[in-house]
Amino acid sequence: MLLHALADHLDEACLVSAYDIAYGHLGDTTQVLNRPQVVFIDSGGYECEVAVNEPTALWAPPYQARPWSAELYRNLLSALPKESPTQYAVVSYDLDGRGQPVRTQIELARLLLDEYPRAWSVVLLKPRGPAALIDVAEVLANASLLTGFSIIGVAEKELGSNLLARVKALINLRVGLDAAGVRAPVHLFGALDPVLVPVYFMAGAEVFDGLSWLRFGFREGIAIYLDAWGVLELDPSMDCCSAKVRAGVRNLVELERMKTRLLALVESGDISVLKHHREVYAHWANVVQSTMGGR
Predict the structure, then answer these.
(1) Total domains, the chain
(2) Last residue of one domain, picked from the residues 162, 181, 213
(3) CA dihedral defined by 206, 207, 211, 217, rounded to 10 degrees?
(4) Are residues 247 and 159 in the same domain?
(5) For residue 129, is it left (φ>0), alpha (ψ between -120 and 50) or beta?
(6) 59: which residues sit within 8 A by CB, 6+ positions away?
(7) pTM of the entire predicted model
(8) CATH of the domain at 117
(9) How confident is the chain (295 residues) per 10-residue block, as mean pLDDT?
(10) Do 26 and 163 belong together in one domain?
(11) How many Cβ atoms are within 10 Å of 83's Cβ, its own excluded?
């Protein structure tokens, strides 16, 4: 299993689905859950949908969701080791709150997350009603209720229909939270792409997750298909499994380097500390500054 092959390299943080743990999709998770400094336990909403669409596939493979509920999620959380060197970050069960007003989502999240006071609490906010996008104004109108959560989560695709709209929504969210005294970092779900992370980071996101690091190979600041990555690695004899493991290890190194560069950007304000695509990022830095009124 790919995750286990990479487990020795997951020192800092990882995110796993409670649904996958509960149904044994990850095998023995002892090493995976105990090695990183922080493990995010996602509530499983993505995996228990009727169909899971992979961005690398033209058609979704046949997929039959298994039963999942807030109660099953609680059972899984209660079974986590009570004594562990790992810090857990528990994500709210967003399926119960989906479509509900933001205030209701926050109240439901607090009811669940307060049961696990030793874990970091991650409230994942979703669009209201049939809307496909989050209403940032509604979130900010309820910002006072967000104090006490460790992390504020939103999904990348639910911030806007294009990158510019998402960046502006993220800026408005971060600026509004700061104005309300909510200092918790913003977690952008599904956005762990080497090109996009610096853009979203400049817009105010600080925590990222996604499957790109397992699906693609990171090279020169972009994510490419593993077959192409293998060609560029000049190892035509490399089989698919070996390519996935080797690319995964290399991707983790690249993510660590990216983190170092982003921290340097915060310290210096100099976009040149970003190794790749500097002209592109200079453009997005200008977008961020103009959206914030030049601040």
Answers:
(1) 2
(2) 213
(3) 50
(4) no
(5) left
(6) none
(7) 0.92
(8) 3.20.20.105
(9) 80 93 88 89 82 48 80 94 88 91 97 96 94 96 97 97 97 98 97 97 97 92 90 75 88 96 96 95 96 75
(10) yes
(11) 4
